[in-house]
Amino acid sequence: MSNFFSKAEVTSSGRPVLLRNEVECHLLSAVDLEPEDHRHFSLLKSGLLILTTHRLIWLPSSSASTPTCASAIPLAAISHIFSSKKSLKSVFHSPRIRFQVLVSSTVRVFDPGSGSGSSSGSGSRSVVVTAVIRGKGDCDGFLVKFWDSWRARAWETTETSGSGSASASGSGAATGTGGGLYSSDGSVRMVGVAGILRKEQEMWESTDKNLQDAFQDLNALMSKAKEMVTLAEKMRLKLLSGTSSQTSGTNDEDMGSKEEMQDWLLSVGIISPVTKESAGALYHQQLSRQLADFVRVPLERAGGMINLIDAYCLFNRARGT
């Protein structure tokens, strides 16, 4: 089965290594992946299924008797998601989610990110894959977010400036309609009930405009935050490589300033923090794994020991809490 699905990279704590701008959306435990019409492949049994904005990631259970590699299915390779059908038979069986995947001529899941993406996509065929949920997760909620992530096609989004300009023009049109409630010179003033109603309408439109501006600023801030985290990570790696190549005659003051810069960069943020909404019952397990990945770098820089309150503050600041 490892030859059928794409291989996914994981950290030392068992968390998936996310792609650029990839964010986790939902998790389900104890999930089997069963490709139909491929009986000569072994099945992926009782693993953790993670839905992101770019992929479906299957992680093997830590208690599995046989070692299995982490696997992934790009959402771009999915051609159709079947709707769940409620029947009397489904009451006595584990919930199932069926979707159609493009398979290349080499009998592998079509990966648009590979070098031969166009050729593989042109000669591909479809295979139905069934996800059997044997745990107690929210299958319906997972299916809804599965549809949303697949339709959003976040892997195709490269720039957010276009959407920002479009929303800005939309707010400008709303402002223009709000100004049409009064005459051009402003000399005519309505009194009585009509004046009260128009003043209420003006207040509502002003509130709506302020809300639109606020959400535009929030979206711009979120998009810039991802860029800042990426930039900070590049700066941190550059500083670390510079520190390792320094000679013994380096100025202590320069070393101190670089260490302060590294401490600041460590606390910039985590792009995809684990949340209760996405992890559900697995929140504490996945949060501890993310903490283990995050605290490794400051622990190495501090010589293997760090105050608990310092780790707490650094991690919460990176998560934005």
Quick structural summary:
This protein has 321 residues and is an alpha+beta fold. Helix content is 45%, strand content 17%.
Give the spatial strand order of the biggest sheet. Answer: 1-5-4-3-2-8-7-6
> Roughly what percent helix?
40-55%
Question: Number of helix segments?
Answer: 9
Helix and strand pattern? EEEEEEHEHEHHHHHHH
Largest sheet: 8 strands, antiparallel
CATH structural fold name of the largest domain = PH-domain like
What is the class of the largest domain in the CATH system? Mainly Beta
Mean pLDDT: 75
Low-confidence parts: 116-121, 158-163, 165-189
- Label the structural class: alpha+beta
How big is the Rg?
26 Å
State the distance separating the first and last CA atoms: 40 Å
